[in-house]
Amino acid sequence: MDRTILHCDLNNFFASVAVLDNPTLKNCPLAVTGSVEERHGIVLAKNELAKSYGVATAEAIWQAKRKCPELVCVPPNYHRYNEVSMAVRDIYLRFSDAVEPFGIDECWLDVTGSRLLFGNGMEIAEQIRAAVKREIGVTVSIGVSFNKVFAKLGSDLKKPDGITEISRENFKEKVWPLPANALLGVGRSTKNQLDSLGIFTIGDIAAAGCDVLKNRFGKMGEQLYLSACGEDSSPVATEESAPKSVGRTTTLSSDLHSAEEAWPVVLSLSENISETLRRHGLYCGAVQAHIRTFDLNVKEFQAALPAPTQSSMVMAEKCMELIENNFGFSVPLRSIGFRAINLKDAAAPYQTDIFTDFHEAESREEVEDKIFEIRQKYGKDSIVRGTTVNTHIHDRDE
Ligand SMILES: [Mg+2]
Question: Who has greater pLDDT, 83 or 252?
């Protein structure tokens, strides 16, 4: 029997909360900006009206104001985002216990077991859409499907305040003509590689076949193929299945003697951990670094982060700081382990990494800036592709 999965995505979440708290802003073009000072502030989020002027996420306020002089800029209010997010989640929980957050404004629900009580997927989605609007005052777009990947894709198709069903009967017609990067897991770099293979749509991914994609992208290629064919079987993670901590460790083929040598290793571990955190909608509150020296001495250090994060850069930098400050490469290292602890729910208040959480695409520019910064600090070759080191990484999920 097919599952019934919903993906609920709150529309223009930051801007909607701003209007909720100040209804006079309702008909204004609105942007939530990192700093209201025009020279440094950038647009973190915007409402539909601002969007219609061409205001884009991640651009500078002065650029946005050139397109839309009457743009109203408000600062973010993380505390309120958290409150509203939790209130909406309480509504979801009326319809299913299996609610998996994905960032602060998105959740998957497995409502397979709720159909007898509340009706089919479309009927449940309609009840949720109406309740969120009536009780909270914000709108939500919902995708209804038989797997998580298509449910997420469906929630992108009618914005704001819309419901889209992607069924076994209609997915070839609705999903396959869409560009490849509409599929969960296809970021900019994967998209570029797919382009070079002549694979432009989700249908092209399905038509390419499993072997071609597996040869090019490894395990991820297989997952892409399965996703495109509607064969994604990943479960909606409930609270109980969420890990308490996420750790990765690696044994090195040669000893490490310096921060410059250690950095790419720490960064790949961190990227790996970040991916797992995102999958579970968890944020890392503290970092634990674990090192083994060439003479097999084991040392462990830990420190809290200023704010919970999923950012691989923030976690990796903290891990490096721990190793450098407490150990300083006085003797060569044989292995490095790295664990994200004090994990927090996605909706916990946080301040950093706003882009990676809310606008995956835009975030990559930010990450690239960060990479540039790191290269300045640790040298040109300090960042290598994560995959070159990942092969030796051992999973230490708990
Ligand atoms: Mg959203």
Answer: 83
Nearest alpha-carbon partner for 3 in 121, 127, 170, 174: 121
Report the separation in Å between the CA atom of 3 and the middle of ligand 1, taken as the mean of its atom positions.
24
* 8 and 156 within one domain: yes
Token pair, residue 111, equals: 């409502």
* C-alpha of residue 252 to centroid of ligand 1, in Å: 41
Tokens encoding 8: 């609920």
Q: Is the pLDDT of residue 242 over 90?
A: no
Whichever domain contains 296, its CATH number is: 3.30.1490.100
pLDDT at 89: 92
- Same domain assignment for residues 188 and 269: no
| Tokens of residue 255, six digits | 């000893």
For residue range 361-383, what is the model confidence (pLDDT) as tens digits? 344 445 555 555 555 555 544 55
Containing structural domain, residue 56 = 1-168
126 belongs to the catalytic site: no
Q: How far is the CA of 10 from the centre of ligand 1 (A)?
A: 4
Report the Cα–Cα distance between both ends of the chain, in Å, rounded.
Answer: 31
DSSP 133: I
Three-state DSSP state, 165: strand
Q: Ligand 1 centroid vs 143 CA: distance in angstroms?
A: 12
Residue pointed to by tokens 């509504």: 91
Look at the chain and report how many structural domains it folds into. 3
Same domain for 264 and 325, yes or no, is yes
Residue 256 Cα to ligand 1 middle (Å): 43
Which of 153-167, 214-228, 286-300 comes out lowest in average pLDDT? 286-300
In this prediction, residue 375 carries a pLDDT of: 53
Q: Give the predicted TM-score (pTM) of the model.
A: 0.66
Q: For residue 196, is pLDDT > 60?
A: yes
Share of residues in the chain with pLDDT > 70 (%): 85
Instruction: Say which of 106, 261, 317, 366 is annotated catalytic.
Output: 106
236 located within any domain: no
Contact partners, residue 253, CB within 8 Å, separation at least 6: 392
CB 237 within 8 A of CB 107: no
- Asked whether residue 391 carries a pLDDT value surpassing 60, the answer given is no
Let me know how long the chain is.
398
